[in-house]
C-alpha cells in the first residue's frame, strides 16, 4: 500500500506539506522527524506534574514536549520539521499478523475498524488535545495516516525526503532507516533517553 496517499496533515488546511514543514533555519535542507507520542510520553513522566496551567490543569507533557522540540531545533538546526503521529497506535493489519502486538497496552478491545483503547494515564490523556492545539498554533505540522503508526509515517517521509533526515524517537526499531553509506544525505536517529546516536 502506498502510505503517502494516506498521509493526513493536522494543521491549517490552506497550506500544503512544504508550506507546513516550514523552514526553521536558513541552512542547507535538513528534515527533523519527531516520534511525537514517544516524546510526549517521556515528557509526561520526566516533568513534574506540579507544572500546571493557570487554570490548574496539568501541562507537564505539553511543556516537556515543547522543551524537547526547542532543544532539538537548537541542537540540530533543521530546515524542516514534522511531528509524526500515531493515527492508529495498534493497526489491525499488524495484529492480524502478530496477535500479541502491543497486547500488553490494551485497556479495551474495540470491534471493527476503530483502534483498541491504549493504556494512557488520565492526566496525559487530557493533555493530548492541548498538544495538538499548541503544535498547530505554533505552525508545526502533525503528520499521521489512518491505519498506521508514527513509525510508518516516519519511514515513509524519511525515505522519500530527498534531503538529510534526523529522526528523534525512543524506539530502537527506526534504526533500520539509518544510511551509513551516505551519512551526509541519509537518515540518522537520535534516541531520546540515551546517549546513542546513529548515522
Describe the structure.
The protein has 199 residues and is of the alpha/beta class. It has one domain: 3-Layer(aba) Sandwich (Rossmann fold), CATH 3.40.50. It contains seven helices and nine strands; from the N terminus they run E-H-E-H-H-E-H-E-E-H-H-E-H-E-E-E. The strands form two sheets. A seven-stranded mixed β-sheet has the order 1-6-3-2-7-8-9, sandwiched between helices. Strand 8 and strand 9 form a beta hairpin. Helix 2 (36-46) packs across helix 3. The model is unreliable at 1-23 and 193-199 (pLDDT under 50).
Summarize it.
The chain contains seven helices and nine strands. The strands form two sheets. A seven-stranded mixed beta sheet has the order 1-6-3-2-7-8-9, sandwiched between helices. Strands 4-5 form a two-stranded antiparallel sheet.
List keywords for this structure.
single chain; 199 residues; alpha/beta; Rossmann fold; two-stranded antiparallel ribbon; 7 helices; 18% strand; globular
Q: Looking at the structure, what is the overall shape?
A: globular
Number of domains as seen in the coordinates: 1
**Low-confidence parts:** 1-23, 193-199
**Radius of gyration over all CA atoms, rounded:** 17 Å
Give the terminus-to-terminus CA distance.
Answer: 28 Å
Q: What is the H-and-E element order?
A: EHEHHEHEEHHEHEEE
**What about the largest sheet?**
7 strands, mixed
The amount of beta strand, in percent, is 15-25%
Q: State the CATH architecture.
A: 3-Layer(aba) Sandwich
Number of helices: 7
CATH homology superfamily name: 5'-nuclease
Instruction: Give a count of the beta strands, DSSP E runs of length 2 or more.
Output: 9
Classification by helices and strands = alpha/beta
Amino acid at each position: 500500500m502506498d502510505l503517502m496517499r494516506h498521509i493526513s496533515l493536522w494543521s491549517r488546511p490552506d497550506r500544503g506539506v512544504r508550506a507546513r514543514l516550514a523552514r526553521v533555519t536558513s541552512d542547507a535542507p535538513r528534515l527533523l522527524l519527531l516520534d511525537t507520542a514517544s516524546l510526549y510520553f517521556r515528557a509526561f513522566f520526566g516533568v513534574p506534574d506540579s507544572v500546571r496551567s493557570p487554570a490548574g490543569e496539568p501541562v507537564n507533557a505539553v511543556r516537556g514536549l515543547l522543551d524537547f522540540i526547542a532543544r532539538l531545533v537548537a541542537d540540530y538546526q533543521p530546515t524542516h520539521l514534522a511531528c509524526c503521529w500515531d493515527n492508529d497506535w495498534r493497526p489491525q493489519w499488524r495484529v492480524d499478523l502478530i496477535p500479541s502486538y502491543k497486547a500488553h497496552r490494551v485497556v479495551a478491545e474495540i470491534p471493527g475498524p476503530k483502534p483498541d483503547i491504549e493504556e494512557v494515564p488520565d492526566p496525559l490523556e487530557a493533555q493530548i488535545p492541548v498538544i495538538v492545539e499548541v503544535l498547530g498554533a505554533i505552525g508545526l505540522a502533525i503528520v499521521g495516516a489512518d491505519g498506521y503508526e508514527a513509525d510508518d509515517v516516519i519511514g515513509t517521509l524519511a525515505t522519500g525526503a530527498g534531503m538529510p533526515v534526523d529522526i528523534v524517537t525512543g524506539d530502537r526499531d527506526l534504526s533500520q532507516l539509518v544510511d551509513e553509506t551516505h551519512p551526509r544525505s541519509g537518515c540518522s536517529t537520535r534516541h531520546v533517553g540515551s546517549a546513542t546516536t546513529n548515522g
